[in-house]
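re: ur question from earlier - yeah i can do the single chain one, its not a big deal. heres the input i used so u can compare w yours
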Amino acid sequence: MRWRSGRQSSNIEDRRQLGTGAKVGGIGVIIMALIGLLMGADPMQMLGMVGKEFLGGGTQTVSSRRVAGNDEEAKFVSTILADTEDVWTPMFRQMGGRYTPPKLVLFTDQINSACGYSTAATGPFYCPGDNKVYIDLGFFNELKALGAEGDFARAYVLGHEIGHHVQNELGISQQVSSLQQRMDEANANRLSVLLELQADCYAGVWAHHAQRQRNLLEPGDLEEGLQAAASIGDDRLQRMSGRRINPDAFTHGTSAQRVQWFKTGFQSGNLKTCDTFQALK
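and the output i got, formated as tokens:
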């Protein structure tokens, strides 16, 4: 990706710090992960627990709230965040609205947000309660271990989380939450998956405009994004964890679905093509 010449966002909160507390040893992490899987926990979270222990992610620290000048990964996410701002702000203006960019919070190991206490095992997440995206940069090591390498693989992950913020800005998240309160668990979970797939599509929309306006992508970058989408599909993660494929336990959609919706957004650059809920109408 041609990201180094881009501006960095001012909407960064760097909360990484030393002394995040005692950690469970390697065997303990594996046991906890296996118990979690048996109890129906999200496979991505459980793989994250093991990845944090054995891949050594999230150990980089800084003392200030600004991104350190020699902190390559932090500079990368700050630059990609700025690019999403430069895409979504004019798009909202064209729709007659106003885009309020989210804050992106860098943390190490654990964090408290308006959505409660979370660990790095959760993976990157968006909290609508405070309009912030949270990420432990060690997740990029886990992403690589899952077979998704390269700058654009990481940018896709950020684009997906910003996609959730776009959903929140458009009121889609609130509509889905209201519907889920009147549904049984299976149908409510199905809506959650469709919401995640739409965020994949929105990531594609961002990438479309970033490429069109700033020629951000280099040869092979699109393939990196598609590989990232495929690598973190629910079916693949369940298979990697030794479980049978159980659609009722999906949280983000299959590898094929994630690739399909990212490609849909990338090819069209149009939010209207990202109606993953169309099948329910």
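The first helix runs from residue 26 to 38. not sure if urs matches, ping me
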